[in-house]
Structures are given as structure tokens and as C-alpha cells.
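Sample 1 of the test manifest.
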Amino acid sequence: MSDLLKIADKTYQSRLLVGTGKYQDFAQTRAAIDASGAEIVTVAIRRTNIGQTAGEPSLLDFLPPEEFTYLPNTAGCYSADDAVRTLRLARELLDGHKLVKLEVLGDPNTLYPNMIETIAAAKVLVKDGFDVMVYCSDDPIIAKQLEDIGCCAVMPLASLIGSGMGILNPWNLQIIIANANIPVLVDAGVGTASDAAIAMELGCQGVLMNTAIAAARDPVLMASAMRKAVEAGREAYLAGRMPKKLYSASPSSPTAGLIA
Amino acid sequence: MQLMINGKPRSFEGPTFSVANLVASLNLEGKRLAIECNGEIVPRSQFASTQLLEGDQLEIVGAVGGG
């Protein structure tokens, strides 16, 4: 069955997108990403450590840009200007790469997104030729506005970044999905495999996560679990679940031919 | 010549100094990085031809693990 994720005219086999932060070391990062099957990996843009020893390994040595689709993010940015500047640097760093994750935060404690700054940045980035996957609150009106601006995917939170609280408002996600003509991916808040499966069963096109894998006791095993959960949730969505009812007078075994 | 690099002042020898010279003197040759000078990106193809001036503010960034 050919069921590919399509983002900005490029297709992907995997609907699981993963972050590359918070791992013990680069070897564990690589092992977890291999187990996840992810093709799109997020990276952060930060000041280079001046005076570091030459030949010190870098993330790119373990995750060659030829093997993965990099999704540079603006994590840590609190203004539209900083986010735009960061992604322009990312584009130069990655040889003209256009696919980016826009994320503008509003509060350092909750990491809740600032949607006013996010919208301002999205407008500039789309005009500048970027393919913008945008992290957002789970507000259906905001999600639609981001689509109208020209973002190539909207990525509402399931719950707060790094919280592992799972999907707190499936109803809003369903409204966002029903109204969207671009892919909707859940980004942030997934804690364990069932959360990822639920996101996919709701009809999300994909799930983006970092902490749920990196902060598991065994990140590589959790990465494998997430891969299966995303696949299972997607298949369940496509299969179409049976209706829920309080009880059923229709058992699975025949009612005729019972002894006595 | 004094430059501000990633928020910290650093001194370099010589009256003329290009971005390429800077990258070499910081042992960053061959590393994947992007450089901004006074808020403007310096494309890699222009490292050699871009001369730095006293007090220039530089940001040198790379990709790191993140979510």
C-alpha cells in the first residue's frame, strides 16, 4: 500500500518526525533515530563553540544531511525577528535548504507558543521562499490563518513541550484536521506510544516528538515503539474504526447451534 | 583589530582580514557553519572577498541537536 506523507511537494515513507536533542551522546541519537525510522529530523541553530578542538565530532557527522531531511527549527526564539534571522542562517548553513520548522515561544516556563509573533514570522518566511512547517497552539482559527498565509504544514501542540501529558484536546485537533487543506502534524506533548497512536487515529498526517523518545529509560526501544504506534494509528485511521456504543446485543459468536 | 564574535570580543593581527582568514584562524575550516556580519549573512562563496573592519559584530552558527 502506498500511503506517503507529502510535505511541500516531497514525499516521505515515515510519518514520524523526530528531534535530535537531549540524548546522552551522538551514537545514542543515531541509534534512536534509526529505530524510529524517521526521515525528517529537527536540528537547532546555535552559536558555534569557538576554540573547540579541531576534529571534535558534530551532530552532522552522525546524521549526514544526505541521509536525512533536516528540519532546522527556531526553538528558543521569542520574537519573529529572531526566528526569521535564525532560519536565514539555517538556509545558508544547509546550502539553500527551504524546509523549516517555525516555533516562536511566549513564555520560558511553559514554552507555550506566542502565536502573534509566530504569524508575523510566518508571513516573512513564506514571502522569502521558505517551506514553513509551523508549531502552533491548538486553536482552529489560528491554524487556518497559518494555512492562508502559505505555511506548508501546521503542527499544533498535543500538550506543552516536554510535558509528556499526551493529547489534551482531541476535539480541537479534530476541528483543525477537518478544516485543513495542508498536513496537520501533532508536535509536542506526546509522552508514550499510545499518545502517538491516538494522534494518528484522529487523522493527523504525522507526529513530531523529541523528549518522549530521548527521556525514556531506553530511548532506542521507545523510538521503535513510536514507529509502530504511528504506523498502527495511521492504519487504524485509514481502516475506519467501528462506532462506539454503550453495549451491543450482537455477540461475535453465532447465537444459533448452542448446546441444550 | 578587535571583533565581536558570538557576543565576545576577540583580537586579531593585521590591518586587513577577510572572513576566510577569520574562519582559518579559529580552526573552523571545513566545518559546516553560517556567518552573519553586522546582521547580514555572508554567503560561503564570499568568505574570501569579504573584508572585516574594526568592531564588526559576527555571529558564527552551526547545527546542534534540538527538538
